[in-house]
Write a structure and sequence with these properties.
InterPro entries: Cyt_P450, Cyt_P450_CS, Cyt_P450_E_grp-I, Cyt_P450_sf. It catalyses: (E)-cinnamate + reduced [NADPH--hemoprotein reductase] + O2 = (E)-4-coumarate + oxidized [NADPH--hemoprotein reductase] + H2O + H(+). Pfam families: p450. This is Trans-cinnamate 4-monooxygenase. Its main location: membrane. The protein is α+β, with helices and mostly antiparallel strands. It has a single domain (about 30-500), classed as Orthogonal Bundle (Cytochrome p450), CATH 1.10.630.10. It is built from 19 helices and 10 strands. It has a 4-stranded mixed sheet. A two-stranded antiparallel sheet has the order 4-5. A hairpin with a 4-residue loop joins strand 8 (about 485) and strand 9 (about 490). Helix 6 (about 125-135) packs across helix 13 (about 280-285), helix 7 runs parallel beside helix 19 and helix 14 packs parallel to helix 19. The longest helix has about 30 residues, at about 235-265. It starts with a helix and ends with a strand. The protein binds protoporphyrin IX containing FE.
């Protein structure tokens, strides 16, 4: 390490200690902060609580400090909320006050300092982006325009799995094929495009760059530079890689998808609204001067991040639970067979006629919430919550997983039991009508993609269960459902091998 840099850093740390002590004394007098472990200068609570603030660790801390508590992560305040009442306050009653997003050094790179929609602060830019994205992505008209495509993609998954004889004996890592399906589902909407196979070079490149972006953004590796700004110079190498990945990725979106579509639009008449795909609408907004070219690319970036893996994780969890609960799988198959009749392949309109399928989806999203702490919220200004003062620019985490898995609120929550959504919880919907169950959040910053995610989940799980008996690989009685969490995701640690035994109709 450069000696001058080290000297500067040590001096900086010393100054930071003095300033932190002075600030904490001063703040202690002025603010009534939420309870929490005693912070030490500079590091705050970071060394005590560590990096991995996943939903389970945060619940352990809530047991100690209550439904609202504060952690000081270096210079950053982190407020964790673990009750339906306080979640309602954050997401609904004070939805404007807490409707911003925190970013950090890495997210600043990937979003061009909030030129996107998902990670931008609450305000004019967010409102405009959400409005511009609604018509091309988040309406029932979009579902009706693309559902045949999703049904086709699910049928192709079934066909490809049937073609692979090993799938029926030693099994196949189904996720790989489903990932291609999810890319196709979303790239049809965005660009009216699909990828032919898992080996398609463009798909391979895209998948690698998206994976790299997720890994870099979700890693805990850069926390030190984020929490303690004085250490940021040591992140230089990490941030350089982030910048390179971001540039290459946006260039790929631009060269291979946006420009291609523009070329096509110049040769064909796109007057027919019915033929337009999402990017045509977004480019219209750019032409009208509502957004710039960067915003267009960040919309593509956001959809790649927010839509594909989240839905894929949920499908993967659903399959794992159905394999590990053969009686539930059987019951679901029975519903599909009796309501739809043998041989009729499930379509989007059918999903509304299948209450047990809906319950399986809800139960999967409850027990295995893909974004268990929602996307972090933030208050731009000093605020009040639960009788405490919340300093401006605090990161607010809503422990949605705990809300949906608290034994004081749910009967045997650790049990995977879809029946609960047909019995004691029959009024609870995924759209957020009950603050105990928020897999997509609720309120201003809630997930607009719910309208697409639910039918895709229904069609995919439905087709798989209709066509195959899904089993663990030979010699295994259950799939390993160990969880893996990132900065804010919850997925399965090991992508399971699934035996898919074709059914004969
Ligand atoms: C099962 C699949 C999905 C789950 C579990 C999920 C969950 C979530 C959650 C929890 C949030 C944050 C809510 C909050 O902070 O209060 C969110 C935000 C978001 N989701 Fe989803 N999502 C899924 C699929 C999708 C899809 C398919 C799309 C797009 C096509 C999408 C687009 C977005 C966007 C754009 C936001 C940011 C909204 C904003 O900040 O205003 N999501 N999602």
């Amino acid at each position: 390490m450069d000696l001058v840099l080290l000297e500067k850093t040590l001096l900086g740390l010393f100054v930071a200690v003095i300033v932190a002590i002075a600030i904490s004394k001063f703040r202690g007098k002025r603010f009534k902060l939420p309870p929490g472990p005693l912070p030490v200068p500079v590091f705050g609570n970071w060394l005590q609580v560590g990096d991995d603030l996943n939903h389970r660790n945060l619940f352990d801390l809530a047991k100690k400090f209550g439904d609202i508590f504060l952690l000081r992560m270096g210079q950053r305040n982190l407020v964790v909320v673990s009750s339906p009442e306080l979640s309602k306050e954050v997401l609904h009653t004070q939805g404007v006050e807490f409707g911003s997003r925190t970013r950090n050094v890495v997210f600043d790179i990937f979003t061009g300092k909030g030129q996107d929609m998902v990670f931008t602060v609450y305000g004019e830019h967010w409102r405009k982006m959400r409005r511009i994205m609604t018509v091309p992505f988040f309406t029932n008209k979009v579902v009706q325009q693309y559902r045949h495509g999703w049904e086709y993609e699910a049928a192709m998954v079934v066909e490809d799995v049937k073609k692979n004889p090993e799938a029926a004996t030693s099994g196949t890592v189904l996720r790989r094929r489903l990932q291609l399906m999810m890319y196709n589902n979303m790239y049809r909407i965005m660009f009216d495009r699909r990828f032919e196979s898992e080996d398609d070079p463009l798909f391979v490149k895209l998948k690698a760059l998206n994976g790299e972006r997720s890994r870099l953004a979700q890693s805990f590796e850069y926390n030190y530079g984020d929490f303690i700004p004085i250490l940021r110079p040591f992140l230089r190498g990490y941030l350089k890689i982030c910048k390179e990945v971001k540039e290459r990725r946006l260039q790929l979106f631009k060269d291979y998808f946006v420009e291609e579509r523009k070329k096509l639009a110049s040769t064909k008449s796109m007057d027919n609204e019915g033929l337009k795909c999402a990017i045509d609408h977004i480019l219209d907004a750019q032409q009208k001067g509502e957004i710039n070219e960067d915003n267009v690319l960040y919309i593509v970036e956001n959809i790649n991040v927010a839509a594909i893996e989240t839905t894929l994780w949920s499908i993967e969890w659903g399959i794992a639970e159905l394999v590990n609960h053969p009686e539930i799988q059987k019951k679901l198959r029975h519903e599909l067979d009796t309501v739809l009749g043998p041989g009729h392949q499930i379509t989007e309109p059918d999903t509304h006629k299948l209450p047990y399928l809906q319950a399986v989806i809800k139960e999967t999203l409850r027990l295995r919430m893909a974004i268990p702490l929602l996307v972090p919220h933030m208050n731009l200004h000093d605020a009040k919550l639960g009788g405490y003062d919340i300093p401006a620019e605090s990161k607010i985490l809503v422990n949605a997983w705990w809300l949906a898995n608290n034994p004081a609120q749910w009967k045997n929550p650790e049990e995977y039991r879809p029946e609960r959504f047909l019995e004691e919880e029959s009024k609870v919907e995924a759209s957020g009508n009950d603050f105990r169950y928020l897999p997509f959040g609720v309120g201003r910053r809630s997930c607009p993609g719910i309208i697409l995610a639910l039918p895709i989940l229904g069609i995919t799980l439905g087709r798989l269960v209709q066509n195959f008996e899904l089993l663990p690989p030979p010699g295994q009685s259950k799939l390993d459902t160990t969880e893996k969490g990132g900065q804010f995701s919850l997925h399965i640690l090991k992508h399971s091998t699934i035996v898919c035994k074709p059914r004969s109709f």
